[in-house]
Design brief:
By secondary structure, the protein is an all-alpha fold. It folds into 2 domains: about 1-60, Orthogonal Bundle (Arc Repressor Mutant, subunit A), CATH 1.10.10; about 70-195, Tetracycline Repressor, domain 2 (Orthogonal Bundle), CATH 1.10.357. The chain has 10 helices and no strands. Helix 1 crosses helix 4 and helix 1 packs across helix 6 (about 110-120).
Length: about 200
């Protein structure tokens, strides 16, 4: 695996030192994974010395955890602000997928970081994230069904949609760049098919 990181030192903006470190860490970890990234690389990328990084985050593990959680929080804020506003259940379901696809196009490193968590992070970090934050990734679907199907008539459909969403996010996070449109197209065909089978879409 390459341990090169795209671009050189991040521009010196009004970001705080902590935010600059986090931005650099997200970029490095998303490209090289946990074990392929060093504090030295992050130091070079953010333009701050290694002691400054340790001052803010204490360890590489804590930095990875902070980068992961900040990326997750940014993603969920993005998704939740763009979903749950459509005219029916089917449109709301489709909007969840479209929102995740749009987020990935705007911030591809965030989902790649989640992908690297799955495949390269220490087991403890992986389990910690899965337990504490994993369920939030399908919460937009849960909210859509709570809105339109309070009686639970489409519980099996919700399970299917949630599993499809999980597979969609994993595929976006690990596939090479340039295949996003293909992945979205195939996924939406599957989603619309099960919606039609359920009598919720034409």
């Amino acid at each position: 695996m390459s341990t090169q990181v795209d671009n050189e030192t991040l521009p010196d903006t009004d970001l705080s030192a902590r935010d600059r470190i986090l931005d650099a860490a997200r970029r490095a970890f998303s490209q090289n994974g946990y074990f392929g990234t060093s504090i030295r690389q992050i130091s070079n990328l953010c333009g701050l010395k290694q002691p400054s990084i340790y001052h803010h985050f204490e360890s590489k593990e804590n930095l990875f955890r902070s980068a992961l959680i900040s990326s997750h929080t940014e993603m969920m804020n993005y998704i939740n602000s763009r979903t749950g506003k459509e005219a029916d259940l089917a449109q709301d379901v489709e909007k969840v997928y479209m929102a995740y696809a749009s987020f990935h196009q705007e911030r591809p490193g965030a989902l790649h970081l989640l992908g690297n968590l799955i495949y390269s992070a220490p087991e403890g970090l992986r389990d910690e994230y899965a337990e504490a934050y994993g369920p939030e990734m399908t919460s937009p679907v849960e909210q859509v069904f709570a809105k339109w199907d309070a009686e639970g008539k489409f519980e099996e459909l919700k399970i299917c949609i949630n599993h499809t969403l999980t597979a969609f996010l994993i595929e976006l996070s690990v596939r090479e760049k340039g295949r996003e449109d293909e992945i979205l197209s195939q996924t939406m065909r599957a989603v619309r098919y099960v919606l039609r089978l359920s009598g919720l879409a034409k």
